[in-house]
Amino acid sequence: MQRSGFFPNASFYIGPQVEPPLSHTGFIILSIIMAIFTGPAIILNATVIIVSLMYKQLRQPLNYALVNMAVTDLGTAMTGGVLSVVNNAQGYFSLGRTGCVMEGFAVSVFGITSLCTVALIAVERMFVVCKPLGQIIFQKKHAVGGIALSWLWSLTWNLPPLFGWGRYELEGVGTSCAPDWHNRDPHNISYILTYFAVCFAVPFAIILASYTKLTWTLHQVSKMACVEGGAVAKAEMKVASMVILMVLTFLISWLPYAGLAMLVVYNPDVEIHPLVGTVPVYLAKSSTVYNPMIYIYLNKQFRRFAVPFLLCGKEPWLGDEASENATTVETAANKSDPNKVSPT
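RESULT FIELD:
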């Protein structure tokens, strides 16, 4: 690959055809697609952070990981998302070699920390529900420790390219940077294989193990408990649905990216069109939109404060929640007085 002569200050590498990988229209379309993901990601994640600072009710240990994920996703959107929009609009990466390294490092740190935070949330939920260590109360020190570990883990495996083990390079159509999957040097290949194992395989294994334990525990409880109206069974189904949704979005966001990287490592001679190589990148960055929707805006506690903030004080679900609460009170009253006949 050779450096382009058209943009002397660009980290833009072109093939032997001496042509950009896409037409100007193609780059503009990619810029628009990235903007569609980036705009909502910035708004949703910034809202989570703001309402967490505004309302003390949200500053509970179990919510720390959710806020940390909002911070990392906002960082990914602000660095990788905004820069991708700008560079695609220009049709090349305009920040030079230093800018490429800085962007690749920043996006990788935020992205892997977010991925680790997803695993952390799974572990926290499993410990709170299943109590594998007995009646240990989940406290602030546990939440802070988990968050610190996720950042430390990400930094540990994203710093080596800055010191010679691996490197950050342009990816896809050449408008964003990431760890170099294409370099055939054994030194670089060893880094990529290690990176895949500790930054994708390990978090995914933790997520699967935690949610499997969680759903199994709920299933056992539903079998033993005789609750009127099947409340435990309903709770089990709701959690199971959420687990499936979380695992699927994780796989949709990260599996194509990891799979393509491993394909290139194991078969360096494979020919992949730059546009095909860009699709997994965009899927991974799209997680900055999925995450707040799934983990936060489906959380009643966060939704209670975040939605009115976004809608300037309007609360569209207030009536539904009031109706649900009234039904719960009525059911409890009927249970306390078995001789009372409810109206038909």
